[in-house]
Amino acid sequence: MNRQPGGKSAWDARIRQATELASIHPFAAEGLRFYAQIAMLEQKIYMELEQTPARPRSSDGMLRDQLNVSALLPKFSPFLTGVGHIAPPPLAQATRSLAEKSFPSRSRPIEDVWESPEAVNGNDETEEGLLAERCLAWLFLQPYAEYLAARQTRFLPDGTPSRCPLCGSNPIVGVLRPEGDGASKSLICMLCAHEWPFRRIYCPSCGEERETNMAFYSGPEIPHVRVDVCDTCRTYLKSVDLTKTGIAVPIVDELAALVLDLWAREQGYRKLQMNVVGI
Ligand SMILES: [Zn+2]
Ligand SMILES: [Zn+2]
């Protein structure tokens, strides 16, 4: 696979696309502008990591075995300060409460999210402040995970796993790419941004593969993004269809298609993975 994140230019493309889409999709503009600012902070961390002495390529074990909290923690305070300036409440409040905590309490959400990235989704009982802290930790860990993933020896996983073959996290968006007369599908990881091949008709949440129980919908507002729903587990995830446009950046275009989230929720579907603006 050669569609993996490509360092600084990949971040530049995301920031550019978020700014561009914010001017085209006013409905989602607030989230897109927020994401552009977050991506700038994440890019800074990524660039700093790239400037540290090169670590050997890793070919074995899960990417998540490689967390080095002590090396990462000094970057957390400036990140929190940066997010505090741009985030809406309660995220801004969480940056302040985390900044006031000392080690090891401050690193707790980092370790929790690294251990269980799905914890950022929370549930009905999850306290709002805790969820905001996990969300901050997730945003902070994204460039780190992407940096590690870029140094992981590539391999093709057995079959088509529903979780990231490098780090075990949920997919955040699907991608359809032109292939022959049709399209191939892949998924992009919510934590390390790795993209891996996936089956066209298969629910990444429950494994449903009967076509009668799977459907997708799109709308005129942003026709190259669609929502894939599963009627067995009532879960949805969006896919960006690159057969319809060549200039999309999937994780950014996913944010622009906010209207599809609202539609899916109205129909009673639950999102498989929350995105970086909390939708
Ligand atoms: Zn991953
Ligand atoms: Zn399902």
Structural description of this entry:
With 279 residues, the chain is an alpha/beta fold. It has 2 domains: 8-150, no CATH class; 171-271, no CATH class. The protein has 9 helices and 7 strands. It has helices at 8-24, 29-51, 69-72, 76-86, 91-100, 108-115, 128-150, 250-256, 258-266, and strands at residues 171-179, 182-189, 195-198, 214-217, 225-230, 235-241, 270-271. Helix 1 runs parallel beside helix 8. The radius of gyration is 18 Å and the shape is globular. It starts with 7 loop residues before the first helix and ends in an 8-residue tail after the last strand. The mean pLDDT is 92. One zinc ion is lined by residues 203, 205-206, 208, 230, 232-233, 235.
Key descriptive features of the protein:
7-stranded mixed β-sheet, globular, single chain, alpha/beta, 279 residues, 9 helices
Please outline what is shown here.
The protein is built from nine helices and seven strands; from the N terminus they run H-H-H-H-H-H-H-E-E-E-E-E-E-H-H-E. The chain has 279 residues and is α/β, with parallel strands linked by helices. The longest helix has 23 residues, at 29-51.
As for the number of domains, it is: 2
Structural class: alpha/beta
Q: How many E strands?
A: 7
State the distance separating the first and last CA atoms. Answer: 29 Å
Q: Any ligands, ions or cofactors bound here, and which?
A: zinc ion
Biggest sheet features: 7 strands, mixed
Radius of gyration: 18 Å
Helix content: 40-55%
Give the helices and strands as they follow along the chain. HHHHHHHEEEEEEHHE
Individual helix count: 9
Mean pLDDT over all positions: 92
How much of the sequence is in beta strands?
5-15%
* Low-confidence regions: none
Characterize the overall form.
Answer: globular
